[in-house]
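subagent[fold] <- orchestrator: predict structure for attached chain, return tokens only, no commentary.
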Amino acid sequence: MTLPPDPDIMTMVRVIPVIMPMGMVMVIVVIFLVFTVFGMKDYSA
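subagent[fold] -> orchestrator:
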């Protein structure tokens, strides 16, 4: 199999380092929002 690297895979490899920080920030924000919502419910209850 002497196929050249798949351009889609190459673009993915180039884009992953850019998307990873964004994904980490999104996960942290979602977790923070979930904790704040549950915290508000606990405090109000």
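orchestrator: received. Logging for downstream: The mean pLDDT is 79. The helical segments are 7-44.
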